[in-house]
Every structure is written in structure tokens, then in C-alpha cells.
Write a structure and sequence with these properties.
NA-bd_OB-fold, OB fold (Dihydrolipoamide Acetyltransferase, E2P), single chain, 10 strands, 5-stranded mixed β-barrel, globular, 5-stranded antiparallel sheet
Length: 226
């Protein structure tokens, strides 16, 4: 749409950017160095994604204006290099909100724009993909272990191991931790007669990951039909 900058064009040389994006993932994260922040994955009408952060001193200012699944106009944004592990997008930069950033209501982007891009199992298994980036996967659960409780950093944490298969019958190991483990275990108990479809991440990465069983998505319906 005229007047909006494409996400692909965002760079650090200025802050007066104006974008129209859907918040496809939102979570709050606490770290000793950064305190409580709001983390998001944004997508524009071209399907390009970028990570965005609201730092601790601005959380109260923006919290009520942000919600997963909503489309927003965002104006005046800081851009920094994206680096390190657990990167949610392939974009070279990530957004940081400023005190002068504005978030406005705008026309919704289509439902079909969801950012879901499942990767090929073989590329995961042979190490082709960059392990610093998080990925989406889709598959049928064919094996599942019992929930175990392991000590991680002195804290008891639930753990479950599953095996997924794709349309070519390639198998992919999957490990889920914390509440993801109990959620999937409970779903398996109540849906034994159904094929279960799992998406987003082959091992959950803290609160970043999203696990959905038989979600209503075009990609999932096509997978089930095959």
C-alpha cells in the first residue's frame, strides 16, 4: 500500500519508518540483563518478517496497544543488527521501539498472511540450515514418549520426545520442554484417533515457540489431505 515502507527495506540509517504489519508472534521475556521486554515477530503484506522488541522502560507505554494476530501501523522505529542464536527471522536487522514510536489501528492484512514457512526435514537433518535461526515444521506425530521430569539449572522441568514424519516419510526427532510437554501429552491422550499436526520449531525455544495440534490453517488442511 502506498505510503508504507516494505519490511525488506528497513535499515538503521534513519528512524522515520512507517510500516503496516501483522503481529504473528508476541511474548514477554525476562532476562537479568534486559529485564522484562515485549518480543514480537512482525510480517508485512509482502510476506517479509522482522523481529521487534519493546525494552523494559517502554513496556507499560506500549503493552495495551499490542496483541498477537492484530495488524498495526507503526511509525518511527529504531533498527539494529540482528545477531546471536534463536533468531526468529532472516532479516539482517531487528526493530527496537522508541519513546516516540507510534502504534495505530489500520486495515487488517489478509488471514492467509501468517508467516508460516515449513522447512524440509532433510535440510534440518543434514545440517544445511543455519542453526542460529528458528524454523517452522509441519508433520504427523508417529511416536511419543512418556513425560519425564529432568533437573535443569536446579529446577524440575518436564520433557517429552516425539517423532514426526513428513509426506515423504522422512522422520524428524522432536523434543519439547516445560508446559509444551504436558500440553502435547494431554492432547495425545484425548485425540488418539486423529492424526496430530505439529508446527513451529523442532525443539521449543523458551516462549518464542508456538505448538499447535490440528490448527485450522490452509497449510495443515493440505497436509492432512495428502
Amino acid at each position: 500500500m502506498a505510503g508504507f515502507n516494505p519490511v525488506a527495506d528497513l535499515k538503521p540509517f534513519k528512524s522515520m519508518w512507517k510500516i503496516r504489519v501483522k503481529i504473528i508472534r508476541l511474548w514477554k521475556q525476562f532476562t537479568a540483563s534486559g529485564g522484562l521486554t515485549i518480543e514480537m515477530v512482525l510480517i508485512d503484506g509482502n510476506g517479509d518478517k522482522i523481529h521487534a522488541t519493546v525494552k523494559k522502560e517502554l513496556v507499560n507505554q506500549f503493552d495495551i496497544f499490542l496483541a498477537e494476530g492484530k495488524t498495526k501501523m507503526m511509525i518511527n522505529l529504531s533498527l539494529n543488527h540482528s545477531c546471536g542464536s534463536y533468531r526468529t527471522t532472516n532479516h539482517l536487522y531487528k526493530i527496537s521501539f522508541l519513546a516516540t514510536t507510534r502504534v495505530k489501528i489500520c486495515e487488517d492484512l489478509p488471514r492467509a498472511i501468517n508467516g508460516f514457512q515449513p522447512v524440509n526435514y532433510r535440510e534440518i537433518l543434514d545440517g544445511t540450515l543455519n542453526s542460529d535461526h528458528l524454523v517452522d515444521v509441519i508433520g504427523q506425530v508417529v511416536e511419543v514418549s512418556q513425560v519425564d521430569v529432568l533437573s535443569v539449572n536446579g529446577k524440575d522441568t518436564q520433557n517429552i520426545t516425539l517423532e514426526l514424519r513428513d509426506l515423504e516419510d522422512v522422520r524428524l526427532p522432536l523434543v519439547l520442554w516445560g508446559s509444551f510437554a504436558s500440553d502435547v501429552s494431554n492432547a495425545m491422550q484425548t485425540r488418539r484417533d486423529e492424526a496430530l499436526i505439529y508446527d513451529r520449531s523442532i525443539s521449543n525455544a523458551y516462549n518464542v515457540s508456538d505448538v499447535s495440534l490440528n490448527p485450522y490453517m490452509t497449510e495443515v488442511e493440505e497436509f492432512k489431505s495428502k
